[in-house]
Amino acid sequence: MILLKCHKQLSFAEGSFQLDVDLCVQPNEILAIRGRSGAGKTTLLRILSGLDRVKGSQVRFHDQVWQDDAAFIKPGKRGIGFLMQQTVVFDHMTVKENVAFGTQGMRDDQLVNLLLETCELSGLSHLHPTRLSGGQRRRIALARTLALRPRLLLLDEPFSGMDAQTISGLKQLIRDRQREDGFSAIMVSHQQSDYASLASRELVMSQGKLSAGNMDLSVVEGVISHVTRTNGQLVAEISTAIGLMKVPLPPEISAMQVGNTVRMMWIDGMLKIDPWNP
Rounded to the nearest 10 degrees, what angle do helices 134-147 and 164-181 cross at? Predict the structure, then answer.
């Protein structure tokens, strides 16, 4: 369990307000925080990571104190993977070397190759990031962050500059790594479609304060608008109340067609898609 209590005055071009947060994240939970720019979302992640040290704040990870008035554990000692909003890659390294850097010297070629493949970077592994697009560089940074095998994963607008099909694959990758490594995660974004079918709980941040979201993210309903086959896998575009989602169809419902209604549910951390008659 992660606990955060923080009170900090924030100032932006639009004005100032008090960041007033009392947050609890359960083990293995993926929590989404939505809000406008300047609401305090990134500051919250920076405090959790230890990059910002705020007097009077309390941060606990299970039974370990990361920060209070008497103690402070440095960011590199917290076991956190932090994908920042501004993409950070090492231009002097190849794509594969960038991802492998996340293993922190613990050679794990199997994991590195898996991340390269899932992030659609295998064919680019020998190149340097300077030759790649912004979306490709973003995928390098995500793969390197997951290679850390973090205890807590922090994601700041992780899918910016990516198309719906790529986002769908990366969501599945995050779910798979969470089942393998058992981390908790906090993801901040402007829009619900970024974390639908990934997060199990939503909070909304406004003027430095958190409140419950208005949607049960464990169940999302929608209508299939398009079906394609990619690398032998049927992929459906599903129109939902929070936007267009692109998800793989499991074999048992591969006969679903355009116009059919489906319900997507989280069951024991797995995404389940079923036909649905409203």
Answer: 10
pLDDT digits (tens, 9 = 90+) for 158-168: 998 787 778 88
To the nearest whole number, what is the mean pLDDT of the chain? 85
CA distance 43 to 57: 13
CB 40 within 8 A of CB 4: no
Scan for tokens 């994991």, then name that residue: 111
Task: Report all structural domains of the chain as residue ranges with CATH numbers, in order of start.
Answer: 2-212 (3.40.50.300), 219-275 (2.40.50)
Residue 140 contacts residue 89 (beta carbons within 8 Å):
yes
Give which of 90, 97, 148, 152 is closest to 121, Cα–Cα.
97
Residue 69: name the closest of 121, 25, 6 by CA: 6
| Statement: the pTM of the whole predicted model exceeds 0.85 | no
Compute the radius of gyration of the chain from its Cα atoms.
19
Identify the sign of the CA torsion 240, 244, 250, 253: positive
User: Distance between CA atoms of 217 and 44, rounded to whole angstroms?
Assistant: 22
- What are the residues whose beta carbons fall under 8 Å from the beta carbon of 106, sequence distance 6 or more? none
